[in-house]
Amino acid sequence: MFFYNISNNGKKRKKIVLLPHINPDGDALGSSLALLFYLRKLKHDVDLISPTEYSEFFKWLPGSKDILVFSKNTQSLVKKKIIDSDYIFFIDFNNYSRINTLNQFFLISKAKKILIDHHPYPFSFDFMFSDPTASSTSILVFRLISKMNHLDKIDKEIATCLYVGIITDTGFFRFPSVTSETHFIAGKLIEKGIDIDQIYNHLQERYNENRLKLLSKALKKLKVIEKYRTAYTSINASDINLYSYKQGDTEGIITYGLGIKNIVFSVFFFEEKKQYPIRISFRSRGHFDVNQFARKHFGGGGHKNAAGGTLEKSLSESIEYFLNIIPNYYKNLMFSI
């Protein structure tokens, strides 16, 4: 297995870059930070670079202060680290478009490119640690450390990061992707002394005044199409300017649609700036495959019941485009559960 090549064992230290996707969520950050701690224990020089700013909601995570966020001010430093690296890990995504303009740097890097991800239909990488049946990428990082016979290197910090990745990507163990392995690994992480109460408190402390006002805006705009068992809503640039938007403030809005009786498909349109593209999130219950829906119509993808995409249209045009598509999925939506 390739990973033995970067197990130090007295050999030369490797320069390693870890890249999660844009707007990294709990699993992207949790799995990346856990890998950061682990590889540093192997005495390598490791940098974790986020293509965009990430939510304040996760800045309590161990190691989060070590994350280098790509921006105009850090561009030259990030470019150098990527080009000079021996290995680049692509974590919790499998499509180069998910790291925005950073792909211009890794394309000219001679580093070996390694994928660790659980999304279907991956692009090709030099080495691939991919399993779409895994409930989170954090599960894959745990498996990787286990395969290296290094479970003893998982300390409280690594365990906390992996546990956060697992519970956020499984909806606190509620999603269909959860298996006996998910619970088994969670149990192993608990044995490392993580503070479950503190973790849950951090993850529940997501609401501030502005975030609640944005949620209120979205709920007022919520539309239900009973015929297609679909709900959708949106937030526009004026809304976020009015309420001092911060990265992550719109997280969770999409779940409210699925909380409505008989609704199996929820969609959220997000216009962050008065410019394209519009970001769209999709969630479903039952058999309706939003991954295929996002890939076919919105240049995106994800999982069967959770996906995302974008459109180079205005917000109103994006919603109209969506509404014109939905009738084609009448049977799929009617018999989803």
Question: Characteristics of this structure?
Answer:
6-stranded parallel sheet, inorganic pyrophosphatase (n-terminal core), 6-stranded mixed sheet, single chain, Diaminopimelate Epimerase, Chain A, domain 1, 18% strand, 337 residues, alpha/beta
List the helices and strands and how they pair.
Layout lengths: L14 E6 L5 H16 L3 E6 L16 E3 L5 H10 L2 E5 L11 H4 L5 E6 L9 E4 L6 H11 L8 H14 L10 H11 L5 H9 L4 H13 L1 E3 L4 E6 L1 H6 L12 H4 L6 E6 L7 E7 L5 H9 L2 E2 L3 E6 L3 H11 L4 H5 L3
Parallel strand pairs: 1-2, 1-4, 2-3, 4-5, 5-6, 8-9
Antiparallel strand pairs: 7-8, 9-10, 10-12, 11-12
Radius of gyration: 20 Å
Q: Can you give the mean pLDDT?
A: 91
- Secondary-structure element pattern, one letter each: EHEEHEHEEHHHHHEEHHEEHEEHH
Portion in helices: 25-40%
Overall CATH class of the largest domain: Alpha Beta
The fraction of residues in strands falls at 15-25%
Report on this structure.
The protein has 337 residues and is of the alpha/beta class. It has two domains: 203 residues, inorganic pyrophosphatase (n-terminal core) (Alpha-Beta Complex), CATH 3.90.1640; 123 residues, Diaminopimelate Epimerase, Chain A, domain 1 (Roll), CATH 3.10.310.30. Helix content is 36%, strand content 18%. It has a six-stranded parallel beta sheet, sandwiched between helices. Strands 7-8-9-10-12-11 form a six-stranded mixed beta sheet. Helix 1 runs parallel beside helix 4 and helix 5 packs antiparallel against helix 6. The longest helix has 16 residues.
